[in-house]
Protein 1
Amino acid sequence: MNTQGKLKSYKDLLVWQKSMALVKDIYRLTRSSLRMNDSGW
């Protein structure tokens, strides 16, 4: 966010930032899960 507290973009929204972090975590978890399944786990 800029110094005046006004939004310049949707990316400044806290909910956007948190949701993107959640998406990245889910991607990492499913990716590692798929690797385990491919190796016979």
Note: The chain has a mean pLDDT of 83.
Protein 2
Amino acid sequence: MKIEPNQQNKMFAPLWKMSDDLRGGTVAMRAAAEQYLPPNPHESAEGYSRRLRRATLTNFYSKAADRVVGKLLTRAPAPTDKVPARMIEFAGNVTGTGDDLAAFSRDLCTQGVDYGVAHILVDRERIEAETLADEQAAIPYWKLIHPSKLLDWDTQIVDGIEVYNFAVIQFDVTERDDFETKKKCQYWVYEPNRLRIYEEMEGSDEPELIEDVDTGFDYVPLVSAQFRGVGFAGGRPLLEDLAHLNVEHWVSNSEQQNITHAVRAPALTLTRTTESGESESEFKQIVTGPNQLTVLDAGDTLAFLEHSGKGVGAGRTELEALEQHIATSSLNLTMGRRPGNATATARALDDVESSLDLRPLSRELKQALEAALRIAGDMLGTALPQDDAQVDVFEDFASLALADSEMRDLLELNAIGALTRASLLREAKRRNLLPDDLDVIEELSLAEIENPVAGGQSVFDEENNP
């Protein structure tokens, strides 16, 4: 039996890798080399290598993706008061390694944005259990599964809900033997009431069954959150278009750096009259510098040949246009803007409309967390309510967008001198953008020390009682 990814996994793997490489920054993009930065025609291997080593990534994608995650987690997810005390305690350490529900949710949302889908595997410690009480003493834990590691799956409809009834997950296990580490590849095959673990062995083309476990549950303990799902377990990066634009910027910026490097120094040219029988290959190399003397024959001309710079300017203009396009695209999910001088009401409506795109993601997060919490409750022998009030997540993106729009108007009033900075800080506090315990007078004093007002005017001159 040879275990391989199914066709849907293979289809989306390059997109998931693009998200991973952009997240990995300059180092990961350089390592990917020709996958994203193709060599130019007739470019030597050494020339390409130098160009690749000079290339740096401006990571628009990561910043935009983190902004979306931050919006989704404006308020950290938390269990409601309907959840039993034992499960509230579990929510304080859902991974078994110290991550609580809020920290796990950030990682889950990051995967959902990067890959369009995020998978939660609920497992528990394996102990020798003689009774049901012994089984329930085994502590469950959650583990995020990279979508590329979910190699195959199948589903069924149970009570009107589609759930997994088969899943193959690849795990790369590291074992230490004294001062040596060995990496092993395992395949966990889940079915209702059953888990089989296969491991690749040296000298064998087929993995060997090393464990066959009766899970005791008539379902597969795997939950998926689909932020931009395709099918049941596939997904495309939520910001796929922005990711492609960031790769385009990586290539364009490399080209711009290359041409700038080439034309930065002028080329030295020599015009001379050669005697009969003398070839250009016999010309001596000319070395220039402050301590060098160049001797020319009669009639020779030595000059510098400089580039006009028009090509560099055109490249710079194209790069700036691309950066502006990226900046606009990166705000689509979190900010909405009409062209021109829109009214405050129009801008607020734009923000509300664009923020609605986040509500389905918030619902996916809620459903996935609640489903995983119910599975953990089954493993602990603690029943959870079947309603949708187990985990509280932030969904009021409309009011958040309106507050952002109002703050932009207040900032504009402050910029034209129609609103004092003290009033601006008070309004920011009222909209929960600043801590409630912030002292406005003290904050203005510190701001004046760090950035004194031009002309020596104190910030306290703005109003009689700041």
Note: Residues 7-241+357-392 form one domain.
Protein 3
Amino acid sequence: MNQILIPVFFTIDNKYAPYLDCAIRSMIENASKEFEYKIIVLHQELTEENIHRIEKNVKDRVCLDLPGTGDVV
């Protein structure tokens, strides 16, 4: 049986990254095991440190896409 994929979308800049980290961790800790989640974070000028901070949240049933605003047409 295929699991349902739930997309979750955020838009942030570098200053909001610590709050996004907290939001993603909380979401994953409380997420249903019946679903898979795709977290899409459209960002502007994230530092490498904050990108790694966000990426470390990726667990089973969760995938992450981090397009920068320059990547979007």
Note: The chain has a mean pLDDT of 88.
